[in-house]
Amino acid sequence: FKQINLSMARYCAVFVTAPSKEVAKSLAQGLLGKKLAACVNVVPGVTSYYEWEGKMEEDSEVLMMIKSTKEKFAELTEYVKGNHPYDCVEVIQTEISDGNKPYLDWIRDTCGGESSGS
Fold first, then answer.
1. DSSP state, 74?
2. CB burial class (10 A; 0-12, 13-18, 19+) of residue 44?
3. Percentage of the chain surpassing pLDDT 70?
4. DSSP 3-state assignment of 114?
5. Do the beta carbons of residue 33 and residue 108 sit within 8 Å?
6. Residues β-bridged to residue 92
7. I need a labelling partner for 3 at 20 to 30 A (CA). Which of 24, 58, 100, 110 fits?
8. Using CB atoms within 10 A of its CB, is residue 38 exposed (0-12), middle (13-18) or buried (19+)?
């Protein structure tokens, strides 16, 4: 058993695909401006294969890796959904169970750092 430090379990990484670097940049600027994310990495050159409306698709996309807090996830999701061109936007979250404490503290502080605890 690995004991998870519950104070660290409040952080998350969120993955969003976008059709272009420009769309990703606009989303990132909005997320950062609203303190919904501490950092957004945009990874170019992603090829996505998927089924949509009964047919196989292949698209060139960019992948956004967003670092945030679990407290901000619902608002982050609504922001992305409201500002993204896709009808069915990918917004998935994975918990950050551990990490470099100064970095995690920076995420907390940058996202508005609720000090009420989890």
1. H
2. exposed
3. 87
4. coil
5. no
6. 15
7. 110
8. buried
DSSP classification of residue 104: H
Q: Where are the beta strands (DSSP E) in the chain?
A: 11-18, 39-52, 55-69, 92-96
Whether the pLDDT of residue 113 is over 80: the answer is no
Q: Which amino acid is at 115?
A: S
- Cα separation of 96 and 4, whole Å? 10
Is it the case that residue 7 has pLDDT exceeding 80?
no
Residue type, 11: Y
Residue 112 has a pLDDT of 83
Find the angle CA(109)-CA(115)-CA(118) to the nearest 5 degrees.
Answer: 110
pLDDT in tens, 61-94: 999 999 999 999 999 999 999 999 999 999 999 9
